[in-house]
Amino acid sequence: MIIFIQPMYSKAELNADSNYVVYTQWVKALHKMRPDWHFVVIFPDSKSGFKYEDDGFFDLPCVTRVPQRISVRRSANAVSYDANWYDLFFRRFGFDVVWCNLPEIAQHIRYAGRTTREPISRPFVVSHHNYVIHPSLEYEFQENIVMAELAGSLMSDVNVFNSRWCREMLFDNAAKYLSAAMVERLEASSMLINYGTIEPEIKPECTGNEIPVIAYNHRLLTHKHWKDTFTVLDDLYRQGIKFRLRFMNNCAEKVAKIRHYPFVEIILSRSREEYLRALRGCDLNVINSRHETFCIAAAESMAMGQPLVAPDGVTFTEITGKDEIGYPYLFKSPAQQRQHLKKLLTNSDERWKWGKRLSEYVRARYTMDVWAASYVKLFERLVADIHIGTSQRILAKVAEMCKRYNGKPLTEMYSGFSRKHGYVDGKQMIGTQTATLTKLLRLIRHVGHDVVIRGGEEIVCVKTKT
Fold first, then answer.
1. 43: nearest Cα among 76, 79, 19
2. How confident is the model at residue 11 (pLDDT cuts 50, 70, 90)?
3. Which fold is adopted by the domain 2-196+370-384?
4. What is the pTM of this model?
């Protein structure tokens, strides 16, 4: 299977961008389960303005990097679509599935590079939703992005949501802007696959800290209400409660906002390894964000056995298993946040008890392997449902041409279908309006051969069908 990955990038420092971290770990997990799959990934070119330290991901033989000019502004990234670039790109590659982390452009990607609507001629588009612009947000409501996300969702074959809260927000928007028939269509294409952000090396840890260390692996953004949290912590510190707060981030320019607090220690993590090492030394986690569709940072912390003090709402009731395990440390007010923190900071047995239960809960649901396995099942179901609908005479001709073009680029074989080799009974075999590399790729597979990617090109290869 050949999968095209259209990521979203939301931070200038790519190695610290959770979007980059998650999809690279996900691809590795998919590759472990399906070694013959190949992934073609859009990545910012050298002039886009992102910072990136080579971590070896694009050295993997199953990965092909495709450079593209991408804006470092996420809002521009989400609605920018270069039709000419994508048309040319989709005429160069055939894909089985498109995994689109930018649902706002999914409606364009669905038919990029082709003039046909024949199902066999286009890849399946799976939109992965891990953020939604919603009226509940505390920053500017961007209606243009809302409309683009709804249009992309309607045109996607499958819409995958990383949490129930994420789905609820999108359907709130849908009820406001779409007809009842469109909402019904959207519901039919939607499913829940919880984020699987827990890597195998993220395990429960016993820190042995005499003075408890609070993990703060969140950004200092207004909607995360970090100032309110630090006010609560400062009050506790002045009361004589002993603790340290470990701020783990790579945004050096933000550090000045919290450096003056006497309980703060700052670790500017420049790599994934540095970050996880710093996180392992913590005992609990606190966040006051009012807009999270999943909160990867909290899940990582909980997986290490660190209880979480967070708002009783948005996604936190879901990811902590409040209803399933009765998790008690979600708050509705600053006073309750203060109360929860005080109890956990002064009671190591309570920290260990709920840290252990949280770790068991999230590791059973949110591991990378569980996430990848769910996507393997989805992708294989989609591909298995393809209706070839091509005559046996044409299929026999495809098999013949596979041998002729064995070891040659798929684009070369495609050109052959446009010349004399592509005719049966005086008619073009795959037609002028339905001729796509995706269709050709699927016909090749149907007759027992395959297409592999070598040196950035799709190559026809002859094999025995298994």
1. 19
2. confident
3. Rossmann fold (3.40.50)
4. 0.88
